[in-house]
Amino acid sequence: MKKYHLYGIGAALVDTEIQVSDTELQTMGVDKGLMTLVDEARQQELLDQLQGHLVHSKQASGGSACNSVCAASYFGAKTYFSGKVANDEFGNLFMNDIRQAGVNSEFDSPKDPGVTGKCLVLVSPDAERSMNTHLGISAELSLKELNEEAVALSDYYYMEGYLVTSDTGRAAAIRGREIAERNGGKTALSFSDPGMVEFFREGLQEMLGDNGVDLLFCNEAEALGWAKTEHLDEAAEALKQVAKTFAITLGANGALIYDGQSLHSIPAVPVQAVDTNGAGDMFAGAFLYGITNGFGYQQAGQLATYAAAMVVTQYGPRLPGDSHQDALKAVFG
Q1: Which residue among 3, 86, 171, 296 is buried most deeply as judged by most CB within 10 Å?
Q2: Where are the domains of the chain?
Q3: Chain-centre distance for alpha carbon 55
Q4: If DSSP states are collapsed to H, E and C, what string results for 194-260?
Q5: Is the pLDDT of residue 316 over 90?
Q6: Rounded Cα–Cα distance for residues 249 and 153 (Å)
Q7: pLDDT tens string 28-49
Q8: Helix, strand or coil for residue 105?
Q9: Is the pTM here over 0.90, yes or no?
Q10: Mean pLDDT of 248-258
Q11: How far from 179 is each of 5, 54, 276, CA to CA, in Å?
């Protein structure tokens, strides 16, 4: 028995969501459905253009791995998260938020001066989310933020693919993977975004390592992009070369799970989606909770698919705390 079920490392961001039209996305020059890195001036320019819009979710801690770790924690997993925030009001907001979610972290360590990263999430009428991220001090995530002892004491070590864009962040993620492997822990990676697969393939391969990870998360577009194919079955075969097991989320078509021996098709849960932000993060968090708490891959996939479906019916990337236990009851009785 290890101290933690899950250790996650990723960008520490404060999210703000705003509902927009497709026309407004075009007018502002925002790439729909993707995560785009922007500087602080560009993010402020977008906020100025969006003044008067209804903000559907309060500002809250975010970032892909953070969302997944918080979800796993709410389900009941013992978790730890490493990210980098500044000594400012948003850094304090982030740390207080994950503490309330039951996630362990370096709460008492001194924070560096600077600006905490922020993500502006623009949600269009078809529920698609377009993210404009100013990483701020999160871009400086490095070995300094990696808690090697906590990694060694975790069942699973989880990296978000977004870290591939930062030399120091990628190096920290890789060091963590190596420590996990040496201490008998399992490793997991999320591709995070089609743009990461398209433009940072070599860096992602470094994060995967020569022997691949134990578990890989991706959506259909990322899987097809990695395999450079238009066929899902070919993509699945390509993923087997870099991961012992994997989960491919298919949106309204459910998910495809590979448990190391067999492929399992997980049916979708029919819902009316209003905001897809956080669906993949919730899927990963619920799945990681499941497989570290006695569930089989198919069971974990059912829980993850259900929880992700619940997330897209509301604004914001996370469910209220008590909704996680409701999801367990809905899936397993």
Answers
A1: 86
A2: 4-332
A3: 22
A4: HHHHHHCHHHHHHHHCCCCEEEEEEEHHHHHHHHCCCCHHHHHHHHCCCEEEEEEECHHHCEEEECC
A5: no
A6: 29
A7: 999 999 999 999 999 999 988 8
A8: coil
A9: yes
A10: 96
A11: 15, 45, 34
